[in-house]
């Protein structure tokens, strides 16, 4: 019963996370549309006056909402990981039980299916934990040409996954693979997508031409 409740809770949390992603993507696209202020661009002109080409109160409201959504996203992701760990520990069979089942072909098959599917579920959720978001991307950049999109959640970039010191690791991974294709796993509106991005020099800044914001 406990495992069933945890599984149901994880499903609800993942649905909530997907909804947060959709709303964040809408705000990001609105702020970063051509002529827009972006996620952190100035709201005043070169003379220090409020820009007349944008609705400043709306921009401020969007940025504030986006900051709140990012915090909610981080909290939900942490809860998913915690529940998945509990679910995994609750479904691990005792060693004696596993040993007895190994001698019984019917019992072994039945127990094996449950254990393998549970392990795969845990692995899938842990592996699909995003650690960064693409919040800026330049036109005709390597990232754009290779299929990366604004709002994509980065799950894995080469050998870099969720952990500490992510920005230096991302920069190092790009530098070490200059001119070579790098496998990349992103979450886009709740769907995991495999991409291949090649860090390379181009007319703009950086080797990818995009900005990652750590979640």
Automatic annotation (TrEMBL):
Gene3D superfamilies from the UniProt entry: 2.30.42.10, 6.10.140.1710
Alphabetized InterPro entries for the sequence: Nas2_N, PDZ_sf, PSMD9
Coiled-coil boundaries: none
One GO cellular component term noted in the UniProt record for this chain: nucleus
Keyword set, alphabetical order: Chaperone
Region feature (Disordered): 91-113
SUPFAM superfamilies linked: PDZ domain-like
Comp. bias (Polar residues): 98-112
GO biological process: proteasome regulatory particle assembly
Residues annotated as domain Nas2 N-terminal: 10-89
Domain of life the protein comes from: Eukaryota
PANTHER family given in the database record: 26S PROTEASOME NON-ATPASE REGULATORY SUBUNIT 9
Name under which the protein is recorded: Nas2 N-terminal domain-containing protein
Lineage: Eukaryota, Viridiplantae, Streptophyta, Embryophyta, Tracheophyta
